[in-house]
Specification:
By secondary structure, the chain is an alpha/beta fold. 42% of the residues lie in helices and 15% in strands.
């Protein structure tokens, strides 16, 4: 059953899709089967977010640390990404979704990098929802890369050191131009953010679910959004200030 939401959906949702391997193992299946099932869940969640009116969705698909996994698993993941990229990009385009990849692409194959660029170009004019796919991404990498770009501007005389502030650093990050996530979801039972969007999650509401990602469907997402609506977002203020009840 779908939860009834009070108020608009979160403008930006970020998700760590965890639990694919454990889901497969619990069923006596190889890990790759879990990744394929997780891919189907991602499609369901993307479609549901689009229907709900979510403006941006960021999915942690492959982290910078995931390169340390067994070579066979990484190779099959790359094959899964490559095999689905063209078809999924066309469907996203038909539904008005803009696709963007964030992360370090240098370690990916030329073919995969080319496919990513083509998918971004195809959907670049869409405005219904922005879908950020984090591949080869790490929060520390993101901040270091941004700092390096700003340092280059300072060294070139385009920027003074005292002009380096939060807005400029934020504008140099992977999610530049996108509002920070309102709701972060991690499935699979772990309670950590695992180097994901370290800067951008500063005031995000953090929701942890024990549901393994392949089982995280529309109703589970609706529960997370209902929980989000129960939260009071203060951004450093008091509850009274947020509610307009502060006394003089």
């Amino acid at each position: 059953m779908t939860e009834t939401h009070t108020g608009a959906p979160p403008a930006h949702i970020a998700i760590i899709m965890d639990g694919n391997g454990r889901w497969a193992k619990s069923r006596g299946m190889i890990r790759h089967a879990g990744h394929k099932a997780g891919f189907d869940t991602a499609r369901t969640v993307i479609e549901h977010c689009t229907a709900l009116g979510v403006r941006a969705l960021t999915l942690f698909t492959f982290s910078s640390e995931n390169w340390q996994r067994p070579e066979t698993e990484v190779s099959r993941l790359m094959e899964l990404f490559m095999g689905a990229l063209g078809k999924e990009a066309r469907e996203l385009h038909e539904n008005g979704v803009r696709l963007r990849f964030i992360g370090d692409r240098t370690a990916f194959s030329d073919k995969l990098r080319s496919g990513m660029a083509e998918a971004e170009a195809l959907t670049s004019g869409n405005t219904r929802m922005l879908l950020n796919i984090a591949m080869g991404y790490g929060g520390r990498w993101d901040i270091v890369s941004a700092a390096r770009r700003l340092a280059g501007d300072v060294a070139a005389g385009r920027l003074k050191p005292e002009q380096v502030d939060e807005p400029r650093l934020a504008a140099a990050l992977s999610l530049a131009g996108v509002t920070d996530p309102d709701l972060f979801i991690r499935t699979g039972g772990e309670r950590r953010i695992s180097n994901f969007l370290l800067w951008n999650l500063a005031y995000t509401e953090l929701y942890f679910s024990d549901v393994l990602w392949p089982d995280f469907g529309e109703s589970a997402l609706d529960e997370a959004i209902a929980w989000f609506h129960s939260r009071q977002r203060r951004f450093g203020k008091t509850g009274e200030q947020v509610e307009g009840r502060e006394r003089a």
